[in-house]
Amino acid sequence: MYAPPSSLPPTVSNAARGSSAHAQLVSSPPLAGPPRGRFADMILANATIYTADPARPFAAAMAVRAGRVLRVGTYDSLKEFKGRHTYELNLSGNVVLPGFIDSHVHLIDGGLQLARVPLRGVRSKDEFISRVQGAVRDKHPGGWVRGGGWNNDFWGGEFPTAAWLDDISPDNPVWLSRMDGHMGLANSLAMKIAGIDKNTNDPVGGTIVRTTEREPTGLLVDAAMKLVFDVVREDSVNERREALLRASRHALMRGVTTVVDVGSYFPGTSEEQTWQDFSDVYEWAHSMGKMMIRVCLFFPMPTWPRVSDLIHERGRSLSGWIHLGGVKAFLDGSLGSSSAWFYEPYEDAPGDYGLQLLDMDVLLNATLESDKSGLQVAIHAIGDKANDMLLDMFDKVVSLNGTKDRRFRIEHAQHLSPGAAKRFGEHGIIASVQPDHLLDDADSAGKKIGVERAERSSYLFRSLLAGGAHLAFGSDWPVSDIYPLQAIKTAMSRQLPGWEAPWIATERLPLDDSLKAHTISAAYACFLDHVVGSLAEGKYADFVVLPSTSWREFADDIPGHVLATYVNGKQAYP
């Protein structure tokens, strides 16, 4: 067990705590000390503070002024900052953590999904159809029905087809994305509008799933989804603005104060949507004072010259709310959609090795130019071959462009060949991983790629850390829910509901490494470790208060919710 040092305050009895779960702000009398300008706005007292700062891992008190951490330490060491207008938040032992950082989200898409047909967790064909039918009833004829989050593995593996939907939606086109975002289901009307029939060719980097008679089933994989994206009604600017606000509130409820938003950019989608969201949604929210969480934005790699020009013109941080991260690309698809790129074929599809979505020479040249321009590069790779191809390419970039602090990111790094985990450490590559994805994949991976391959290659968190990689946790929301406390628990236990033993127990992480992957390591992964990720002097006072009233209680039973989330030292949730 990871125990805090003895400098923490003694455990407070339950009677003394009273209703510590709902700690109150208490006004305090002025004390002699620093001049008025140096007094704290707020002091957290009698807390169990995990700072994620190696210089002082734990503290009992923290002073905040002007939205930043003034000092952490013992209560006595902070008394000089207590003035007439300083508020004291007596936590009676409650655990405080740095605000969580989600290293990989599609934030606006997550907000949109909250208002669409919810298919996450559906466990039968009948329930799937019933949920869509309920949404159709609320639509006028001709109106698009959209939703997502379905996972066919939850009901035995059978893929849904247009035939599931046609009887209940004869007058409404339907588009339902799979939970991984690399496959979607269209009903027959949607396919008719998109011009998809037995004569339609598969686009480069995509697949139209067909029957033995070559009739489209309704399933579209990766770049083939663009055929529907080109005709589906686009969300209005106002809808996308509302989605940002909805998503931000949801993130705060989960204790997330900073996200890396990789944008509404998927195989088959337009590169322009991410840029439109930047100007029409993020800059609008910023100008109107509506930003609630911090964002680090990544843009489609083909647009790297625009990103470089924007940073040259306006700097990497437009404010404390909006940071410009770099560029993102896709090399392969996903395991669930059988489009992740492997050395060996899929067990259930001999001869199918997955999809390579980009030519390696094209990707290398774009990465070289992005890197020369000082942009951080993040590339999606899930299959073992895709990850190796990226590691080889990064070797070439370092050789050609020289050594520097570039913090290359591989998004997902889900299945690795023997020895690949050690290669991450050679250039300090970021493994941007999603623990809760293993909850979706553990049961199906053996069926997809074989039990032996799955158990030696999947979600190798501990091996990556041992090899010197920097680990950053995220959710890929809306693929998985934005839920750091659950992700931390998953990384530590790798225990699936109903399973007697953990999945690949040797890859479980201890609590401290799991917490850091959602805080300071996640901040490092997006070049924001100088302002967020730990509770240290001068950093933003972004933190969460948990219901646990001692470190031992927290370590033994990680709670499923936060009591409160603070941004800039001000309560943002509830």
UniProtKB/TrEMBL annotation:
Region (Disordered): 1-32
Start and end residues of each Amidohydrolase domain: 89-573
Superkingdom of source: Eukaryota
Example of a GO MF term: hydrolase activity, acting on carbon-nitrogen (but not peptide) bonds
Descriptive protein name: Amidohydrolase 3 domain-containing protein
Bias kind Polar residues: ranges: 9-27
Pfam families named in the record: Amidohydro_3 (PF07969)
